[in-house]
Amino acid sequence: MKVEAAFLTLALGFISVNFGGFCYGALQVGFYRGKCGFADVEAIVAGVITAQFFRDPSTVAALLRLQFHDCFVNGCDASILVDGISNQAKIAVENACPGVVSCADLIAIATRDVVFLSGGGRYDVQTGRRDGLVSVAKNVSLPGPAISVPEAIAAFSDKGLTVTDMVLLLGAHSVGFAHCSFIRDRLFNFENTGRPDPSMDPFLANILGSRCPPFATVDNTVNLDQKFI
Ligand code: HEM
Q: Using CA atoms, how far apart are residues 151 and 55, in angstroms rounded to an integer?
């Protein structure tokens, strides 16, 4: 899949899913209009995020993953940041209007902006989320790196998400990296057979294997988008 197409898929994923079902209260596009004096909250965030993106394009992968991890566990409530958020977007909106904009909304707006900047589609984000006050490690129910497709479907279904939602959201894996430690068993010792996973394309397994040697002491990374491997 082309990067643009993958991003478009992701943008559509966020439009159709937008994790709306997990959030509290009536969300609306432009919730902060008129709530921050004359300041335009979304424009403030866009300014900070644009500068950050051009300093470090890996911001897109970091934010996408952050939003998924925030929203999947207990809805988009910023519980992933319960120890406090000290990034520049938060500082900028707090300077404009203290205590008005939730961290959960900041994550959602900033992710939307950075997806757009990286060549993906643009989608409207509803705002008006309140931040949660609870963050408990044992409640974290994120799908693990070794789960099968049926297990992933079940994990998404538990959160009210369909297979189509899941496929669209997984378009996020068109950016970013994965550590070799997550795939090394499939490359060299699938289910303790001493051989690669037979369901893998041998050509791909070879390329990944050269980047992820069996006894490496350093945990290298590979591109999630196999087109760039
Ligand atoms: C079945 C569901 C999923 C599983 C099992 C999964 C697993 C993983 C794993 C193992 C990595 C590599 C992490 C590392 O090596 O440090 C990763 C990276 C990533 N995931 Fe997922 N993921 C899932 C769904 C999603 C969804 C729904 C999104 C966003 C909408 C997402 C966004 C990302 C991004 C952007 C990265 C790259 C992070 C970076 O390079 O900084 N993932 N994921």
A: 38
Catalytic residues: 69
The preferred substitution site among 56, 63, 65, 71 for testing ligand 1, maximizing ligand atoms within 8 Å of CB, is 65
Residues near ligand 1 with C-beta < 6 Å? 61-62, 64-65, 68, 143, 145, 147, 152, 169-170, 172-173, 175-179, 182, 224
H or E segment and range at residue 149: helix 149-158
My answer on whether 127 and 184 are in the same domain is: no
Q: Give how many domains the chain has, as a whole number.
A: 2
Which residues line the annotated binding site for Ca(2+)?
70, 73, 75, 77, 79, 225
- CATH code for position 45: 1.10.520.10
What is d(CA 133, CA 82) in angstroms, rounded to the nearest whole number?
Answer: 7
Per the domain annotation, does 217 fall within a domain? yes
Q: Give the atom of ligand 1 at the shortest distance from the alpha carbon of 143.
A: 5
| Residue numbers of the domain that contains 209 | 176-228
pLDDT digits (tens, 9 = 90+) for 1-30: 444 445 545 554 554 455 544 444 689 999
β-strand partners of 221:
179
Residues 116 and 201 in one domain: no
User: What length is written for the chain?
Assistant: 229
168-185 pLDDT, tens digit each: 999 999 999 999 999 999
